[in-house]
UniProtKB/TrEMBL annotation:
Coiled coil: none annotated. Residues 526-547 have a biased composition (Pro residues). SMART domains: LRR_RI. This is Leucine-rich repeat-containing protein 74B-like. Residues 523-556 are annotated as: Disordered.
Length: 556
């Protein structure tokens, strides 16, 4: 008992736990906590207000809270401003951003895209979006500026022609232009001359060409396509609406000719084709392409200039092209057609009833070839009004025939250009004998030699009655110090030749003497003196016999 009393004395209080309440049970409203704050101490402002010594003001916000946003002030019972509404968080997180709708002309969209890629907009392009043509020739458009242009033209209903000549386009620019063609339904002509597209660029530019149904004219002149790029374009040309194509100056060759021939076999809708300034040297592939073009029923203009075409085989293929019923222009200038090839080509001119312009300029044609072509213009079935034969020499009968052609009723507006008119003059060249002999005579008058060369040649001819070899003549003149160099000696051999053998050439001195006497009739050798009689040699008298000395006689 004593131990229990001791423990009771040490306990100060006993903790009694309340009954556990479930969190899901809501308290009744009468037990909710009040917003009234129990003030243990008396408020000094209320005491002063009761005594009339303090005024709480008009109830408006304090000036120090004017510059503070609602969300940064804790809500308090004594501040009478509305609670903060949703600042836009729900709208930003739960609702999709409203898309900006631009007009179809593309002007507002173009400015927005230029601002997006941080490039300066082209004012001419912006203003021309409401016109029928956009002409940016040699404008220097940046590569990154092509994408805003292409997107602005996707749904444009005003522009029918887009010219970007002379603006260098990379692969990315070509990609965006190709993507634009898949949506645009207004553009009819695109000119990309001199844009340095290359084989990779044409692959991206023409990938959607078969989708577009309005494009009619595509110019790709001077774009370094090469045979690979030409093959890509030929494949893209299949099942398109493009009818006019310019592929000039693109180094196209054998592969391109074969690819175009395969395409024309299935789809031959081109009305205008320019493949000038290329490399169609391979005859079999070129003939295959020309044969497929000859089967066209809608081809109107064909340019094959500057391709070094020539020969009878190519001429036969071109002859069949003249049978196309709609052909109006055929350009064969700056090639190698002449003689038989020209006759082969013009043999079908009577069948080309709609051909108006026929260009054969700068071909190595003879005057007779030009005359044969013009002579066909006398036939009324041939409708040609422009016959171009620039830099082709013609004869006087050609001019007379041209006058006859222009007097015909169906040739009132006939135009024919040609080169030099060859006259029937006889060209007199200087006589080589005169020149070389006067030159030889002049060299003999020098102070070193002082030799009358004409007289020397006369005397030499007298000495050598037969033709003399070149070597012997050179050695003799050198020994006599006449001063004839090797070139003059060879000239004498050419002008006064003697009999020629397999080993050496000779000079006919008799021919030289004949012409020397024409030039200088006074040059004559002195007469040969008569032969002197041979002196008679007299025998010397025999010497006298020696005298014998006497014996016995001596000196006294």
């Amino acid at each position: 008992m004593e131990e229990e009393s001791e423990t009771n004395e040490n306990l100060d209080f006993i903790f009694v736990t309340q009954e556990e309440q479930e969190s899901s049970v809501e308290q009744p409203p009468e037990e909710w906590s009040s917003v009234e704050i129990a003030i243990l101490e008396e408020n000094k402002k209320k005491v002063l207000y009761n005594e009339g010594l303090y005024s709480p003001g008009s109830g408006e916000l304090c000036a120090k809270y004017i510059t503070v946003s609602n969300s940064s002030i804790l809500r308090h019972l004594y501040y009478n401003y509305p609670p903060v509404a949703d600042p836009g968080i729900n709208e930003a997180l739960l609702k999709a951003e409203q898309e900006t709708i631009y007009s179809d002309d593309g002007q507002a969209l173009y400015l927005h895209l230029c601002n997006e890629v941080n490039t300066c907009p082209v004012r001419m392009f912006y203003n021309s979006l409401l016109k029928s043509e956009i002409n940016l020739r040699y404008y220097g458009v940046e590569d990154k500026g092509v994408r805003p242009m292409a997107l602005a033209l996707q749904f444009n209903k005003h522009v029918h022609r887009f010219n970007l000549t002379g603006n260098f386009l990379n692969d990315d620019a070509c990609y965006h232009l190709g993507h634009m063609l898949s949506n645009n339904c207004t553009l009819n002509e695109i000119v990309l001359d001199g844009c340095r597209i290359g084989a990779s660029g044409i692959l991206r530019l023409g990938r959607n060409l078969h989708i577009n149904r309005t494009l009619m004219f595509l110019s790709l002149e001077n774009n370094y396509l090469g045979d690979i790029g030409g093959t890509h374009f030929a494949e893209q040309l299949l099942n398109t609406t493009v009818t006019r194509v310019n592929l000039s100056k693109n180094q196209l060759g054998r592969l391109t000719a074969t690819a175009l021939a395969e395409v024309f076999e299935w789809s031959n809708r081109l009305t205008h084709l320019n493949i000038s300034w290329n490399c169609f040297y391979h005859v079999p592939s070129t003939i295959k392409m020309l044969e497929q073009l000859a089967l066209s029923t809608c081809l109107e203009e064909l340019s094959l200039s500057f391709n070094s075409l020539g020969g009878d085989r190519v001429a036969n293929a071109i002859k069949n092209i003249l049978l196309v019923p709609t052909l109006t222009l055929l350009d064969l200038s700056h090639n190698n057609f002449q003689k038989e090839a020209i006759d082969t080509i013009i043999s079908n001119l009577l069948s080309a009833r709609k051909l108006i312009t026929f260009n054969l300029s700068f071909n190595p044609m003879t005057p007779q070839d030009a005359f044969n072509v013009l002579q066909l213009m006398l036939k009324p079935r041939i409708k040609i009004n422009q016959l171009l034969l620039e830099n082709v020499c013609v004869s006087k009968p050609f001019v007379a025939l041209l006058t006859r052609v222009k007097k015909r009723k169906n040739r009132k507006n006939f135009v024919c250009t040609f080169g030099t008119i060859l006259q029937n003059w006889t060209i007199v060249e200087p006589d080589g004998r005169n020149l070389i002999l006067k030159r030889v005579q002049y060299l003999g008058m020098s102070k070193k030699t002082q030799v009358d060369t004409a007289m020397y040649l006369l005397s030499l001819a007298k000495e050598y009655s037969k033709p003399i070899t070149t070597k012997e003549f050179q050695e003799r003149t050198d020994a006599d110090n006449v001063g004839l160099d090797e070139s003059l000696v060879m000239g004498l051999v050419e002008i006064f030749p003697g009999p020629r053998t397999a080993k050496y050439r000779t000079i006919n001195l008799n021919l030289i003497v004949e012409y020397v006497l024409r030039l200088w009739p006074d040059k004559k050798l002195p007469p040969t003196p008569p032969p002197e009689p041979e002196p008679v040699i007299e025998e010397a008298p025999p010497p006298p016999p020696p005298t014998k000395k006497g014996k016995g006689k001596g000196k006294k």
